[in-house]
Design brief:
Elements (H helix, E strand, L loop, with lengths): L10 H15 L2 E12 L6 E6 L4 E6 L1 H4 L11 E11 L4 E11 L4 H16 L14 E6 L4 H13 L4 E6 L7 H16 L5 E8 L13 H8 L5 E5 L7 H5 L2 E2 L3 H8 L3 H36 L3 H43 L2 H44 L1 H6 L4 E3 L17 E5 L4 E5 L8
Parallel strand pairs: 3-5, 6-7, 6-8, 8-9, 9-10
Antiparallel strand pairs: 1-2, 1-4, 2-3, 4-5, 11-12, 12-13
Helix pairs in contact: 4-8, 5-6
């Protein structure tokens, strides 16, 4: 920049010139150092100094970026920051406008991402794998209306499959309001899908960016909303190396918005080429079939005989079959007559009258044997009964009574065995060999 040596600059102009030079020449850089003098005023911005052993640098982390820092920033922490070199014109302070802060080693955002990913995976939020309609009839695209993602998607769809109906659902894809807006849009689309069944797929997409830029797609509630969506969801966020929780929760992931459009619909040019190839194969197959059938027709025409010859041949066959039928009928009737004669002879041998006469003879013989056996059996049983009666009489208590003994019983029918079991005045019954006696106890005497 050439300036007049005699011209002077105001302080404001010099500071502005210095700021523009720094922002244009240095731009965005990563700087590593130790935090010092961390200040958090009520505005939500964070101011701090980044220093090493030989120098220090003033830094400003504005509120919209500060919310992406997962852990508190403390004095003495060793961090790596990404930002734009600039100059604060009112005071002429050289500073770094910070866009992202990472702990040296694993970044805090990456650590928060891995923790949330493990939590949702344990809960089964990443289990969706429903097939998407191919091609969809009505595709609902959730993205920024001014981003490159929607232009890429529409360009690919119009080239590959212009028949698909596309509805853009404009939502912010970066910042604090992005995740709630996408969650509300998903809920509305699922409710409306019941009224319009043609809406059969959702594409959630945006272009590339830093981890902080894509952080809205790592929102826990957005991942759950995608998981619970009744409509199948494809996620295409960032570039191929970018992976978000929305990608894991969706039914299918595409590495880029353009790749998502390519996966959703077939390629019209490929289908046309395939149709032309199939048409060529069909024409060839048709010609080959026609040639084959023509040859077969010529062969059949050569084999074709006059109808009179065919009728004469069929007439001779009919006469032969008729003669064979008559002979078979006569043979069958003769066999049936012989079989009937045999059955009549066998029936005569097994006549019921003969069997009745034989049964009567057996009955008479059995009756005679029964009349002879009954007196013998009766005598034998009577003799055995007498013997048993004599044995019973020998051991019967009544026989003992017959020899002059008696059995004493009280009023309850209990047998009296001892004098002590009675009392004076008690009435007893004496059972004799023949008859009974009523008795009254006058006195109980001891055995002595």
């Amino acid at each position: 920049m050439t300036r007049n040596q005699d011209a002077s600059l105001s302080v404001t102009e010099l500071n502005r010139l210095a700021r523009q030079t720094l922002e244009q020449e240095v731009g965005e850089v990563w700087v590593e150092g130790e935090l010092s003098g961390v200040s958090r005023p009520s505005s939500g911005h964070v101011y701090f100094t980044l220093k090493d052993a030989r120098a220090q640098l003033r830094c400003a982390l504005f509120r919209q970026r500060a919310r992406f820092v997962a852990t508190p920033m403390r004095d003495g922490d060793h961090v790596k920051v990404r930002g734009r070199v600039s100059l604060f014109e009112p005071r002429g302070d050289y500073q770094l406008i910070v866009e992202a802060v990472q702990a040296v080693g694993e970044g805090e955002l990456l650590a928060a991402f891995e923790r949330l990913k493990a939590k949702l995976d344990t809960e089964g939020v990443f289990t969706n794998a429903r097939p998407l309609p191919y091609p969809p009839r009505h595709l609902l695209v959730l993205t920024s209306p001014s981003g490159a993602a929607i232009r890429d998607v529409l360009a690919v769809l119009s080239t590959r499959w212009p028949l698909v109906q596309v509805t853009l659902i404009p939502v912010p894809v970066q910042g604090r309001e992005a995740a709630p807006a996408m969650i509300a849009a998903l809920g509305l689309l699922n409710r409306q899908s019941a009224l319009d069944p043609a809406r059969d797929a959702i594409l959630v997409t945006r272009g590339g960016g830093s981890l902080e830029d894509l952080w809205a797609f790592n929102d826990e509630h957005l991942a759950r909303a995608i998981f619970h969506s009744r409509l199948p969801v494809m996620s295409a966020v960032g570039h191929e190396v970018d992976v978000t929780l929305a990608d894991f929760a969706a039914d299918r992931r595409a590495p880029t918005p353009s790749a998502a459009a390519e996966q959703l619909v077939p390629d019209r040019a490929e289908l046309l080429a395939r149709l032309r190839m199939l048409e060529t194969r069909l024409v060839r197959a048709q010609r080959a079939r026609l040639d084959t059938e023509a040859q077969r027709l010529d062969h059949l025409r050569a084999r074709l005989r006059h109808p009179g010859e065919v009728l004469a041949f069929r007439r001779r066959q009919l006469e032969q079959l008729e003669g064979r039928l008559h002979r078979a009928m006569r043979a069958r009737l003769e066999t049936a007559r012989q079989w009937e004669h045999q059955l009549r002879q066998r029936l005569a041998l097994r006549s019921p009258t003969t069997r009745v006469i034989q049964a009567e003879q057996r009955l008479a013989l059995a009756r005679h044997r029964l009349h002879q056996a009954m007196p013998r059996e009766l005598a034998r049983h009577c003799e055995r009964l007498g013997a048993l009666a004599r044995e019973l009489q020998a051991v019967s208590p009544l026989a003992v009574l017959g020899r002059g003994y008696a059995i004493l019983e009280n009023d309850q029918g209990r047998v009296i065995r001892r004098a002590a079991d009675t009392r004076p005045g008690e009435h007893l019954t004496a059972r004799l060999g023949e008859g009974r006696l009523g008795m009254e106890v006058k006195e109980c005497l001891d055995e002595a």
